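Long-time lurker, finally posting.

We've been working with Triosephosphate isomerase (Victivallis vadensis) and I want a structural starting point before designing mutants. I don't trust myself to interpret raw outputs, so I'm hoping someone here can both generate the structure tokens and explain anything notable. Sequence follows.
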Amino acid sequence: MSRKVIIAGNWKMNKTAAEGKALVDALKPLVADVCPDVADIVVCPTFTTLAAVIDAVKGSNIKVGAQNVHWAESGAFTGEISAAMLKELGVEYVILGHSERRQYFGETDETVNKRLKAALAAGLKPIVCVGELLEERETGKTEKVLFTQLEGGLAGLSKEDMAKVVIAYEPVWAIGTGKTATPEIAEETHNYIRCTLNDMFGKEIGEGVRIQYGGSMKAENAKELVAQPNIDGGLIGGAALKADSFSALIHNAIAG
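Top reply, 14 upvotes:
Generated this for you. Predicted structure of Triosephosphate isomerase:
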């Protein structure tokens, strides 16, 4: 099955509104030749930078995502943002369950699941992150960890809802470390995720879900990674913070 490439830049806690606008303004001409039928390009700024970036991408082929969302529609949740608030702003995608949210802010498969359902109900397109720690990989627990995260995070979803979800595989040991799984190791793990989704939702849905690689993808390795049968793009950290490196990565990924 042919799946459209999706490259999403996770800016993490970087870029003020002015800096985010400048980055998008620099990026737009560099990726203007990328056909929306071939690849989805997404940038995911901080909450305070979203409005400026949404305004800056107008008329371009760049889409905007948020880095998190709360599961409640409203209420006494100081510091949180609802899906309806993001949707009204013009956000299209939202990252859920990133390893840093799990590590530093207590995210669990249960809370990821609640956020996921809220995002889908509001019409957002979720990017759900899964991945194992270095110790878990070295002790042969990768598949067990991924199965638990997929089973818990995607619990209760209909086939129709699952078709709207993107999965991002993050080998936590390769995030920001400069370490990257070889294309063969990454593909083996992506294939396991694909087979698990096929078992959970049926082959028709599972084969259609896009699975990103989120472990230190950069321009130099994007082509070889995305050339793998089950790697459909990347969730990009550091390389997404500069227009030239992000553009080069996008073009190389498409060439893959």
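Before you design anything, note these points.
The first strand starts at residue 5 and ends at 10.
The beta strands are 5-10, 39-44, 62-66, 93-96, 125-130, 166-169, 211-213, 233-236.
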